[in-house]
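Run log, item B.
One chain of 256 residues. Sequence copied directly from the ordering sheet:
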Amino acid sequence: MTIFYSITFFVFGLVLGSFYNVVGLRVPKKNFLSNDRSYCPTCHKQLSAIELIPVISYLIQRGKCRGCGTEISAMYPLIELLTGVGFLFSYLVYGLTIETVIALVAVSLSVIIIVTDLTYFLIPNNILLFFSPLIVVLRFVEPLDPWYSSLVGALIGFGLIFVVIVLSQGGMGAGDMKYFFVLGYLFGISGVLLIFLLSTLYGTLINIVSLLRGKVTRKSKVPFGPYISMAALTVLFAGDAIITWYFSFFQFVYKG
């Protein structure tokens, strides 16, 4: 049954990942409820069913539109794959529990934010407002220990980014601040602090590599939402292990 559930969660994630691409691309443009079928943004050819198979269609078409030959952004299959792997890990780490549902919601929010921020440099209020009630209800059913960790975590997440915005004079946006508020409620005090540290680490390392490779300049506008999402996913699946290692390491250093 473990293999069956693993495959089911992975495939379900792939399918929803394709949907999350649409959500992330359409919600900021306010045409999410449009009846328009998916189409190539270059030649406007409507995509057939065989062109909409998650990951596989991209591989079959060798990353190009069948109509005009324009290269398809690698973001599409990567988001589908990330969602599939995220759903798979949700099951493998948490089993069939309420925490699995919480993990699926966290993965879904994270990947949608990656799409919107990479594409539009925007973390939409509509997305956060949609997920916030779900997270509040889920944390009511399955509260953190202690219960007030969610409330304090939300305030800490909001406050940390508020301070960064003030000190950097706009180096981060209000969307990042609201995103941290939601994640703080979801992950609690220790979780949101770890997300802050990891997102800063990811952002620093990736930007240094990008600078060295000439992909960006010091004046380039870089979205921070994807780094926050990467950190949130890391904490979701390995947060406890990281925190345990951290305290064990410093306890070892102190005793030494």
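Observations after the first pass:
- Residues 138-256 form one domain.
- The chain has two domains: 1-96, 138-256.
Flagged for discussion on Thursday.
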